[in-house]
Amino acid sequence: MASPAPATPAPTPLKVNLEFSGGMELLFNNTKNYTIEIPATTSEHTPTLLRHLIFWIRDNLLKEKPELFISADTVRPGILVLINDTDWELEGELEYQIQNNDTVVFISTLHGG
After folding, report:
1. CA distance 19 to 32
2. How many whole angstroms separate alpha carbon 46 and alpha carbon 74?
3. Ramachandran region of residue 33, left (φ > 0), alpha (ψ -120 to 50) or beta?
4. Span 1-52, pLDDT tens digits
5. In this structure, are strands 102-108 and 14-21 parallel, antiparallel, or unpaired?
6. Which of 32, 87, 96, 112 is the most core-located residue (most Cβ within 10 A)?
């Protein structure tokens, strides 16, 4: 009788550093820095993308006014997103594949007056 194939180990979670500034921290309980762990793959077994991280942040860290963070399926206009100190537009925006120890920064560029 053949023995069953060994189970594939679950992927190691990704550690991600998050920073919120320019007023964004007000939506996150006045906390500017978080270090989180997220799954390396989604339930569809695809790599975790920045789009998944944004919704994870909304569902797990955002304390109020989600409309000030997300519009449709992305961050709202007026929020600068940096991935490891590089503008997310140069990294593929929502399709950027999250890597272990990435730092993702969200900076509000909109201010009342």
Report:
1. 5
2. 19
3. beta
4. 566 666 655 668 999 999 999 999 999 999 999 999 999 888 877 889 999 9
5. parallel
6. 96
**Which token pair is 75?**
């961050």
Q: Are residues 105 and 19 in contact, defined by beta-carbon separation less than 8 angstroms?
A: yes
Residues 6+ apart with CB under 8 A from 37: 13, 14, 15, 16
Cβ 109 vs Cβ 75: under 8 Å: no
Query: Would you kindly state where each structural domain of the chain is located, as residue ranges?
Result: 40-100
Strands (E), 14-100: 14-21, 33-38, 70-71, 74-75, 79-83, 86-87
Give the strands of the sheet with 79-83, arranged side by side: 33-38, 14-21, 102-108, 79-83, 86-87
Cα-based torsion angle of the residue sequence 72, 73, 75, 76 in order, rounded to the nearest 10 degrees: -10
